[in-house]
Amino acid sequence: MDSTSAGALSAPRKALLAAALCCSILSACGGDDGEDTPRVTDAASARGTLIENPPRRTQSLASAAVLDRLLSLANGQSIREAAGSLSCGVDVHKIEYWTVDALNKPVAVSGAMMVPVGSGSMCTGARPIVLYGHGTSFGKDYDLSDIDDLNNPAFSEGLLIAAIYVARGYVVVAPNYVGYDKSRNTSHPYLIAEQSAKDMVDALTASRKAFGKIQANTISDSGKLFVSGYSQGGHVAMATHRAMQAAGQSLTASAPMSGPYAVAAFLDSVVQGRVGFSSTLFMPMLTTSFQTTYSNLYLASTEVYEDRYASGIETLLPSTSPSEELFSSGKLPEKALFNDTAPVTGDPALDTLLQRPTDRISKQGFGTPNLVRNSFRAAIARDSVANPDGALRSPPQPGAPAAASPAHPFRIAAKTNDMRNWQPVSPMLMCGGNADPTVFFDVNTQAMQRFWSSLPAGRVNVLDIDGVSDGTETRYAAQRAGFANAKRALERSGGQNSVDLNYHVTAAIYCTAASRDFFDSFK
Fold this sequence. Notes:
35% helix; globular; Rossmann fold; alpha/beta; two-stranded parallel sheet; single chain
């Protein structure tokens, strides 16, 4: 989806990339497109290799141009206010590099390397790096290196990180992930923690090879490394922190935001009836990801999905078509994840648990025609009752541990990618909103907070962007006030429904601003 301003691939580069991608084991492929690109012989040596060095610059914007471009967004004024004064312009480079997929097979992918430019002290010399994981996208053409095309599904998030981080002196490295943009993979390893962390680390390794070669050649690495991300990117950021710590790699601090960290608890809550927004899109992404990675969820897609939706669903997302078109064409139901007639299991307590809920958010996820079969839902729910997650017990089990011995393959996969199995050494800020209808704050952020409750004070910090300050904690008062003002504006324009629909994306603005303030304290 390259725009004319971003430039097109040259014929030699197209040929080189095509040849590289055709080498299934890469044993005969070598890189000659940059002196820092080593010969690619296997997955291990492929990782972190730039396909083109220096990576091409796709945009170069003065700080005023960044601010003006934000006005094209419905929430652009909120981003402008949250970003504050911008000291630097922004150069955006498209990085193309090698990483591995969930099966550890080499794959060429893309991403963005954004660097500050200008004459100010904040815009040149040794700069801190933010390694950033983006949120869930259902559009395959998601490309954070293109903040020129309004039709690019990454346009808004790309501008957000450019304004809040880069224009204030941070270098940002942000992969598009396997399955997006130029990646040939038909599916995305969604919420596969180990693979996500590898992709992030490989993007960082590749980008560091470009320092001194890009147009802003005075920019260098200060040695301060921060990891952040929102929504899915929150899970990616936390998985990356965990992986880098385990590998003994230096990390200054992290700020995962509104992420599905406690994956197992989150999915149990959905199956038991707490259905959030966009679940008919999230579920196929996740189920296909688990099936592709572990090969044991089902023998046929009709075991999971109703017949009318099962055919072709494994290659449906991420899609080249807008979500609205997937709904209107009948490929997915817009809201009805589960049937509003609950399954009958013969277990009265379980039957009651599976009834359609009455709260205004969850009940929207039930109806007819629905996506997920009652039989598949009931099997997972039965296991969730027999082997309960500690975060969902009432009251929650101390430490909110994941279920000790889940039996259903879906729950086993969820636990495998759950973050409740490590302890951070570097400082962390987790930001989110307590009423988020997309990624539930209590079974994710607060579950992690309880899991890490024995850590030294200040190691893990939690910010409820929708919380009311008690008067003693004022560090993020401006971000909380900004979010409150944005919520009031949404309510005035469209009532509570407008607040609900825009809550998750609005929290992203103010949590990202808070994460920058958090990182500023370590520079």
